[in-house]
Amino acid sequence: MKTLDNTSFKDKKALVRVDFNVPLNENFEISDDSRIRAAVPTIRKILNDEGSAILMSHLGRPTNGPELRYSLRHIIDRVADLTGAKVIFSNNCIGHEAEELAGSLKNGEILLLENLRFHAEEQNGDKEFARSLSVLGDIYVNDAFGTAHRAHASTSIIAQFFGSNKYFGYVMASEIDNADKLLNDPQRPFTAIVGGAKVSDKLLIIENLMKIADNILIGGGMAYTFVKAQGGQIGKSLVEEDRLELTLELMRKAKESGVQLLIPEDSVIADEFAPGANHRIASSDAIASDWMGLDIGPKATEKYKDIIRSSKSVLWNGPMGVFEMEAFSAGTKDVALAVAEATQKGAFTLIGGGDSAAAIHKFHLADQVSYVSTGGGALLEYFEGKELPGIKAILSVPGE
Ligand code: AMP
């Protein structure tokens, strides 16, 4: 793989696409700096080699040019603290100021560029905009896995201006390595746990996992489309009527390919979607008309735990219920604990995509699993078997 360890940055200016899309509070203070921390090894490698780093990122979703609340100037001090380097800021990511500052940047220093998305050309994948960015550096590094599934100017289009001088940063490299462990040669049994709100978001991943996993455990709101498709009574539970046929098709395919696809046999049901709702246990296919399933039930949880604990590889994408509400968090928490147990017994376990990373952090189990991915949509698409533009851009060499 084209990682940083294969090259020296001595006297070079590295243009690095990072993911500094951190949450800011109303005083523009960073409430969680883990994305900046994640990029530090890549930045330090460049600076330790006696090179300099030009960092570019998006922050939030500005729609109409520059806006103070989305300015990357709010994170200058934190980048300096975490890297221990001098950080210079450019008020525009392209143009005269950025070029001047990049030109006079010294080895060991960082130039942080203003929010890429203050220019609509970034998300449009505009080639001229990408070219304007590319003139700032000698080597291109992509360390923003979270946007690797987007063909934006800074994540993919820009790579063509660097010939073969382009590399994956450490975050990208480990995301790819870890995902490939499951995709290419998983230890068996391999169990995939797929949950979350909507089955339409997860159809492609389930279809692709069917080719590699031994067990697929379904949970979350999406489970009720499966239950209804089989003729069950699901009350007011989430359902996607236009996907009923497709879920039946998935179940047929699983049977044909010898994959165990499980739907939760019981559920925690509630009379409203609220933390204080009345709730009880019911069979998932016999939910009273005014009630809804908001978590997998105790029987399903036990069964899923048994399967997870005896697995050698686990992928977990999406919560088993409305884990944000205490009354409906047990299924997700117990599954998380079982994944941690499997890890302790030597299984390789990867968490990511959708809200399962948030869930594993909430239950303080992030350090008890093998790997928690930083990429929501990007990881999901990788497991759907798609080629991500941000990865392809680094791997493809002009003329080949
Ligand atoms: P996703 O982003 O697709 O992973 O979906 C995560 C969201 O699905 C979380 O906010 C959960 O609260 C929600 N969710 C999980 N199970 C259910 C359910 N049974 N009914 C409604 N929402 C659910």
CATH homologous superfamily identity of the largest domain: Phosphoglycerate kinase, N-terminal domain
Which band does the percent of strand residues land in? 15-25%
Order the strands across the largest sheet as they lie in space: 3-4-2-1-5-6
Largest sheet descriptor: 6 strands, parallel
The gross shape turns out to be elongated
Helix content: 25-40%
List the total number of helices.
Answer: 14
Number of strands: 17
Q: Which CATH C-level class of the largest domain is it?
A: Alpha Beta
How many separate structural domains?
Answer: 2
What value does the Rg take, in angstroms?
Answer: 23 Å
Structure summarized in a few sentences:
The protein has 400 residues and is an alpha/beta fold. Helix content is 34%, strand content 17%.
Write the layout of secondary structure elements.
Layout: E1 13-17, H1 34-48, E2 52-56, H2 76-83, E3 87-90, H3 96-103, E4 110-113, H4 120-124, H5 127-134, E5 139-142, E6 166-168, H6 170-184, E7 190-194, H7 199-209, E8 215-218, H8 223-229, E9 233-234, H9 244-256, E10 260-262, E11 266-270, E12 279-283, E13 286-287, E14 292-296, H10 298-309, E15 313-317, H11 330-344, E16 348-351, H12 356-362, E17 371-372, H13 377-383, H14 389-395
Parallel strand pairs: 1-2, 1-5, 2-4, 3-4, 5-6, 7-8, 7-15, 8-10, 9-13, 15-16, 16-17
Antiparallel strand pairs: 11-12, 11-14
Helix pairs in contact: 1-2, 8-9, 10-11
The structure holds adenosine monophosphate (AMP).
